[in-house]
Design a protein that fits this description.
Bound molecules: 5'-deoxyadenosine, iron/sulfur cluster
Oligomer: single chain
Distance between the termini: 50 Å
CATH architecture of the largest domain: 3-Layer(aba) Sandwich
CATH superfamily of the largest domain: Methylthiotransferase, N-terminal domain
Number of helices: 14
Order of helices and strands: EHEEHHEHHEHEEHEHEHEHEHHEHEH
Helix content: 40-55%
Radius of gyration: 22 Å
Length: 373
């Protein structure tokens, strides 16, 4: 799979294109100079002069033929032009074959949009693959270097499309990970290494010989150099005492944990197939805070899961209120075709989801304010 980015305008745009490149490479795309070879073409536009805009219109218009020949081609337009609502609308009218139109503020979501477009295709034609160890990264994230340690997910939370589009869990070998991090550290450009995986806590279970995530952290921290290690995401059901102790005692490991709870209600957690209860989650939080008092805890929540009642939603509110996270992400449940939850009766109306997500976010705001005080 190939990507091709056309950048217009100033250094800011050039730099933002580096971000797009990173996201696309993370998704498995490789760069190409020839737009004929590309599976995704991104126009990062500039609005400073009419001429620049016209050029963009001309060049995007010229893609119509390519798109007709290869309907799977994804065309995205972003940047300053499309930040202007009217120009964005013009794009939509003039070039209905453009798949993604985003402004400067939402540029970072390009990966999500591409994935959304891909989902339909991938769901029809799913095949898994091994982790590629041959390509490097266009690292653009300042002093932080992302390092992927595994792909896929085995959990099949009933709302989630990840296991379908990313396949089963495959861990990279510790040797390959350590080699990559040694190079990153040797470059002297990065102070922080952030390990990435859908569920890093189950890292290494599929390897022979198997290795735990805590052990991986230990081995990475033995690399000489001045750097910190962060990681995401963790599934509550897979957090072990060994891991908590490693975070607590390893000076190189950041005292940060993103631990998505998704809901505070046991019936909903069960329907979500999360494999833990509210009580288990709260016990876990207590244990973690006990051993690592300065831990920065964050979480994800989904509101409006099928059949969620107001009362059950209030359990999520009370959990958030009880834990007082350092930050949360709140999502309205979104139906993903092909998932178990998509076939459940009792889908919650959008208006109710909106009300619930706003309630949860205002509670979070209130908590943050109080914590600041
Ligand atoms: N609808 C809404 N949010 C979802 N997430 C995953 N799948 C869905 C969905 N179908 C959220 C979860 C997860 C985060 C990365 O995205 O909260 O932790
Ligand atoms: Fe896997 Fe996370 Fe999706 Fe659950 S929410 S299926 S753990 S990626």
């Amino acid at each position: 799979m190939f990507y091709h980015i056309v950048t217009y305008g100033c250094q800011m745009n050039v730099h933002e294109s580096e971000k797009i490149a990173f996201i696309l490479e993370e998704m498995g795309y490789k760069p190409t100079d020839k737009r004929e070879d590309a599976d995704i073409i991104v126009f990062n536009t500039c609005a400073i002069r009419e001429g620049a805009e016209e050029r963009v219109f001309g060049n995007v218009g010229a893609l119509k033929k390519l798109k007709k020949m290869r309907p799977s081609l994804i065309i995205a337009v972003c940047g300053c032009m499309t930040q202007k609502i009217n120009t964005a609308k013009t794009f939509k009218q003039k070039f209905p074959f453009v798949d993604i139109i985003i402004g400067t503020f939402n540029l970072y979501k390009i990966g999500d949009y591409v994935r959304e477009l891909q989902n339909k295709k991938v769901l029809e034609l799913w095949e898994s693959g091994a982790i590629d160890e041959t390509k490097g990264y266009t690292r653009t994230s300042g002093e932080n270097a992302w390092v992927n340690i595994m792909q896929g997910c085995n959990n099949f939370c009933t709302y989630c499309i990840v296991p379908y589009v990313r396949g089963r869990e495959i861990s990279r070998t510790p040797e390959n990970i350590i080699k990559e991090i040694e190079e990153i550290v040797r470059s002297g450009k990065y102070k922080k290494i952030t390990l990435l995986g859908q569920n890093v806590n189950s890292y290494g279970k599929d390897l022979i010989p198997s290795i735990t995530f805590a052990e991986l952290l230990r081995r990475i921290s033995e690399i000489n150099g001045d750097f910190k290690i962060g990681f995401m995401t963790s599934h509550p059901k897979d957090i072990t005492d060994e891991l908590i102790d490693e975070i607590a005692n390893n000076e190189k490991v950041l005292k940060e944990l993103h631990l998505p709870a998704q809901s505070g209600n046991n019936r909903i957690l069960k329907l979500m197939n999360r494999k833990y209860t509210r009580e288990h989650y709260l016990d876990l939080i207590r244990k973690i805070r006990n051993k690592i008092p300065n831990i920065k805890l964050t979480s994800d929540f989904i509101v409006g899961f099928p059949t969620e009642t107001e009362e059950e939603f209030l359990d999520t509110m009370s959990l958030v209120n009880e834990v007082k996270f350092n930050g949360i992400f709140a999502f309205m449940y979104s139906l993903r075709e092909g998932t178990v939850a998509s076939k459940m009766e009792g889908q919650v109306p959008e208006e109710i989801k909106k009300i619930r997500v706003n309630k949860l976010l205002s509670l979070e705001k209130k908590i943050q304010k109080e914590e600041l005080k």
